[in-house]
Protein: DinB superfamily protein
Amino acid sequence: MSYNQQVIDLAAYTDTYRQLKEAIAGLSEEQLKYKPAPDKWSVTEVLSHLADHSIVFSFRVRKIISEDNAQLAAFQQDPWVSRSRANKGSASDILDAFGALLAYNKLLFQRLSAEDWARSGANFKGETVTLESSLLAFIRHVQTHLGQIERIKSALA
Structure:
């Protein structure tokens, strides 16, 4: 086992896919597209946001490991969701894309050295973040949205 596999728990990262699949299991298309309020996201839109976030995270990871003094891009989540008409998409297709990004990133992560994991960049707030802290933040971000999905499901009842 390499150093980074001992320190970095990639299972928590890849397990977010299973957690999301379980969270939406048994929901109908109508339930997946239900919005608790006009300005709130549906479950499908939450999944779309997480797929978008995974794309941005993937880009940030590559900037951190390949550039010195990397400047990490921000993105406007609400317009990304609304202007992509995310709620017209298929939750299953979106979740499959999310899972594919996780799998692809895991392949990269398994090749990285301890030095790579310690590399850093500056986020849009000007804060320095390491690759490792970025991965942990991604996992926490998914957990936050799993809570949001549970609140949407509760509103359906």
